[in-house]
Amino acid sequence: xxxxxxYVEFGVREARGVSTAYERLSLAVSRDDELIALLRTLPPAKxxxxxxxxxxxxxxxxxxxxxxxxxYVVQNWPAIEAQIRSRATQTNExxxxxxxxxxxxxxxxxxxxxxVGASAGLCLYxxxxxxxxxxxxxxxxxxxxxxxxxxxxxxxxxxxVVWRGGLDLNPLDVTDPADVGWLDSLIWPEHxxxxxxLRAAAAVASAEPPTLVRGDLVDDxxxxxxxxxxxxxxxxxxxxxxxxxxxxxxxxxxxxxxxLPGHWIANEAPDVLPYDDLPQPPSEAMxxxxxxxxxxxxxxxxxxxxxxxxx
Length: 311
Known about the structure:
The chain is an alpha/beta fold. It has two domains: 3-86, no CATH class; 94-172 and 207-309, Rossmann fold, CATH 3.40.50. It is built from eleven helices and eleven strands. Strands 3-2-4-11-10-9-8-7-1-5-6 form an eleven-stranded mixed beta sheet. Helix 1 (3-15) packs antiparallel against helix 2 (20-30). The two termini are 31 Å apart. The model has no long low-confidence stretch (mean pLDDT 95).
């Protein structure tokens, strides 16, 4: 897929109906030969729209007007390039807990959660948040996570979590304003509700920080998994992470996680972790596949805003 095609797909399948600013901006970049030439100087993994747009927002640049964005990027490319090369899209969207919750609550309790690609670890607190699925409310904490659930076997309550661990190449610290600022920059422009959610989830994590380990998802996963209490059900999970991992390492991770005790929850795009005989997704929008121990269960949207059960 060319750089232009990547930006078209992001605009049409991910941003459309979710962020007008990013839909307009990504389509404009796809037609901008000068910006595409700059992006071509980066490694392929560093050319993605979310990373470029997040860095520009972090540096105070405009993302609501394509012409102003073009001028800012061209004029400030050395600073933008340096940030892009040193950062990753570590979107730590607590809202994704809403699509994990029905699976987590159905497993033998209590749970020891281990998130791969944990960023700041905000998805390690599904028991501390509140949820609204239509007219159904679960939990009593903050933030309250809204999810449109179709055909989902909803639990009667939140899971019991007794241990939280995270693995990341560059773990972020929710008590560090600079790290939280980067997470804020990765939130799409119009999503004020997600900014409020980030602050509320960061307050939860700051009160009881998780065990976050800097490490590789293959080399360092077994040692962290071994630290989980033996009397809890180990659950290794990840959401929208493996697309950043080269396919050979991705395959090595899958082989490894299948052999660990406990359970494995994946929430990734169907071209990242392919499954046989998937039903058609609910729409042409970008969807992830939620799977337990390699068995696909539901289509989910990227920020946890919707899920459609088929398992």
